[in-house]
Amino acid sequence: MEKKHLRGIMKFSRLISIGFLSLILTVFGIETTQAQRSTLPGTKDESTFVSLLSKLKECRTNGSVYWSGTNRNISIGRRLYPSIASMSFRSSSYTLTCKINPKGTAKPFGTFRFTFGVDEYDIGQFEVKVYLDGKITAGHTVNPGEIKTLLLDVSNSEDIAIEFKNTNTTTGIYKLLDDINLYIFDDILERLE
After folding, report:
1. Are residues 26 and 89 both part of a single domain?
2. HEC string of the chain?
3. How confident is the model over 48-106, as pLDDT tens digits?
4. With CB atoms 3.0 to 4.6 Å apart as the test, which of 44, 54, 157, 180 could cross-link to 124 if both were Cys?
5. pLDDT of residue 166
6. Buried b (16+ CB within 10 A) or exposed e, 10-34
């Protein structure tokens, strides 16, 4: 009789533990979902900081490039920097055009910070130009082992276009074999307060 009683207590204890664990996971899941929803563009409480790469599906592209969102450590100046994405070029140029502040936007973006570079062990040089509302605003040439940062006021701009031009001079079979990568370290749109 004592063994049955002990088994009954153990079963009851397990049921309480499972119920308690389910309650904790449910509450945690609801809080996580609410936190994720509060940062999505288009929701009532839009996030202050948004990655331009997160808006890729809303943008128009021209050219052939393979995007990789894999974080990699990139060697620049004999130091490692974590990248947030990379672009592997299949054509000589690629343009990304996005609407960042549509007319009537209640909380427009105010600044755009864009940091990019080329691993010091890669071959390839890139020209990067940024256009705001169709007018060239900034541009840089980046060589292997360099990082460049652009900080732009986009508060009065509806559209942004970034033009990437691969100026690699490698020819023949080596051009076909080499992955020509531009790494992105930061791409933040920040809303006005």
Report:
1. no
2. CHHHHHHHHHHHHHHHHHHHHHHHHHHHHHHHHHHHHHCCCCCCCCCCEEEHHHHHHHCEEEEEEEEECCCCEEEECCEEEECCEEEEEEEEEEEEEEECCCCCCCCCEEEEEEEEEECCCCCCCEEEEEEECCEEEEEEEECECEEEEEEEECCCCCEEEEEEEECCCCCHHHHHHCCCEEEEEEEEEEECC
3. 888 887 877 788 988 888 778 778 899 998 899 999 998 887 778 889 999 999 998 88
4. 180
5. 85
6. eeeeeeeeeeeeeeeeeeeeeeeee
Domain count, the chain: 2
Residue 44 scores a pLDDT above 70: no
Strand 146-153 to strand 135-142: parallel, antiparallel, or no bridges (unpaired)? Answer: unpaired
CB count within 10 Å of CB 83 equals: 23
CATH number for the domain spanning 164: value is 2.60.120.1060
Burial of 65 (0-12, 13-18, 19+ CB in 10 A): buried
Structural domain that includes position 9 = 1-38
Q: Which two tokens stand for residue 158?
A: 């509806």
Amino acid code (one letter) for 32: T
